[in-house]
């Protein structure tokens, strides 16, 4: 038996999220089927975490175990990519020790949330970034952004139906960048932490955007309430990208 | 009667090209249907030029005539965008003189061709840019690129079935840029001219890429041959973007 660590990318708009479902095409289903074809037996793929329907990954990590120890790392990359649809691609394969676990061994994860500012929607950014009609006040957002960083109980930013009992997470860094990429003006939130609750990034970004548009929210006070109803709206999944997982 | 000039964008991967067809979804069909619904009568949309199946537009221009002179420019933008699918969006509407013709009045057009260099395909760039496994030799490409600029007979770079008789076009500028956008290494060809023959940009880029990978092509000699068989391969449509049309 050999434990295999894979890094992969996907366009989340083609999948009903990560987790296996009986009647929907999910990333886990598609990956497990493709890998099974190449290694010759069924496998169970464990990712660093689930992503919701519509969320993209620039770098997601997972592990699985294989019985065939003759196959090389390169053969797995090439073979599995031949079988996978174009909306998902393995970038890298590494044989790791049996103690590695893609979810339990995570030290740090980074997500980005992409918005763009434009009078009209850009069809080339459809399902890829959130369309904003006007630029929010970035000074107001930056005043509040530092209150997110640190070890906090993030209950107020966790979707009500998460099924979690421990809401404490540490956010190492949160920044907002304005970038012009060709004709497009982007606003990009980058958040790094030891882990994130269900919809936590989308709830944080939604609240910060409302602050930028003039809503009188105070992140400190919202955190203290430990109640989802005190935070802002959830932004849609399609602007969210998992960009890095570190072990 | 009023002549209306529109600027619009589209993701070409959802359409069978620009030109109206009886049995396929094209940009012209979708636009004409949407505009007709808003202005209350059928219209004929004339674009600055056709784009092939898969080719994108960051800025395409067209005109059409309307009978209703009460509707405002803003009403057309908003109304038509409500009816259009997300893969196509009108950015701007302007009422112009009846002498304006979206195709015949063109002074200059710019196209970009996007490639990215990566060990594996990036699913988020699928149908958006050409995947290259390794960087071509840019010095070799730049040596030849200047021979494209100027007034030439571009027969050698025109698809055989174009039906054209005049193959002379003027290329005002052609450059190749290397850009890193986040983790992705892009190579972008930008070409500006007074007009382009059928598949001319894709044939030029294909030939220049082959030069960059070591093929002993000479642009001057290829131009002199006036024969498509002497130029390089056609690169796929999905890396091509119409980025500007000037009048």
Q: What distinguishing features does this structure have?
A:
homodimer; 247 residues; alpha+beta; Alpha-Beta Plaits; 2 domains; ten-stranded mixed beta sheet; 21% helix
Could you please describe the fold and organization of this structure?
2 copies of one chain form a homodimer. Chain A is an alpha+beta fold. Chain A folds into 2 domains: 2-96, Pseudouridine synthase I, catalytic domain, N-terminal subdomain (Alpha-Beta Plaits, 2-Layer Sandwich), CATH 3.30.70; 108-246, Alpha-Beta Plaits (2-Layer Sandwich), CATH 3.30.70.660. Chain A is 21% helix and 32% strand. Chain A is built from 5 helices and 10 strands, in the order βαββαβββαβββααβ. The first copy, chain A, has helices at 27-39, 73-83, 138-145, 200-212, 219-225; strands at 2-10, 46-47, 56-66, 88-96, 108-117, 130-132, 150-153, 168-181, 184-193, 240-246. In chain A, strands 1, 2, 3, 4, 5, 6, 7, 8, 9 and 10 form a 10-stranded mixed beta sheet that branches. In chain A, α3 packs across α4 (200-212). The longest helix of chain A is centred in the first third of the chain and has 13 residues, at 27-39. Chain A is globular. The mean pLDDT of chain A is 95. The interface between A and B is medium-sized, with 24 and 24 residues.
Set down the secondary structure blueprint.
The structure is a homodimer of 247-residue chains.
Chain A: E1 2-10, H1 27-39, E2 46-47, E3 56-66, H2 73-83, E4 88-96, E5 108-117, E6 130-132, H3 138-145, E7 150-153, E8 168-181, E9 184-193, H4 200-212, H5 219-225, E10 240-246
């Amino acid at each position: 038996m050999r434990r295999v660590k894979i890094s992969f990318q996907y366009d989340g708009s083609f999948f009903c999220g990560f987790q296996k479902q009986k009647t929907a095409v999910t990333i886990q289903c598609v990956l497990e089927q493709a890998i099974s074809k190449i290694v010759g037996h069924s496998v169970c793929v464990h990712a660093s975490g689930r992503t919701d329907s519509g969320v993209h990954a620039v770098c997601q990590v997972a592990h699985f175990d294989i019985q065939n120890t003759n196959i090389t790392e390169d053969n797995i990359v090439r073979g599995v990519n031949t079988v996978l649809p174009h909306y998902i691609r393995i970038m890298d394969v590494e044989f790791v020790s049996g103690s590695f676990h893609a979810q339990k061994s995570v030290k740090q994860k980074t997500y980005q949330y992409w918005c763009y500012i434009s009078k009209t929607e850009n069809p080339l950014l459809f399902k890829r970034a959130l369309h904003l009609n006007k630029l929010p006040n970035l000074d107001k957002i930056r005043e509040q952004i530092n209150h997110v960083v640190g070890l906090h109980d993030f209950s107020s930013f966790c979707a009500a139906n998460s099924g979690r009992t421990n809401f404490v997470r540490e956010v190492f860094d949160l920044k907002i960048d304005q970038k012009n990429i060709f004709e497009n003006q982007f606003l990009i939130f980058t958040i790094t932490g030891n882990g994130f609750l269900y919809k936590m990034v989308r709830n944080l970004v939604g609240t910060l955007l409302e602050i930028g548009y003039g809503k009188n929210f105070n992140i400190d006070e919202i955190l203290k309430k430990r109640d989802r109803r005190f935070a802002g709206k959830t932004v849609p999944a399609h602007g969210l990208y998992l960009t890095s997982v570190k072990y």
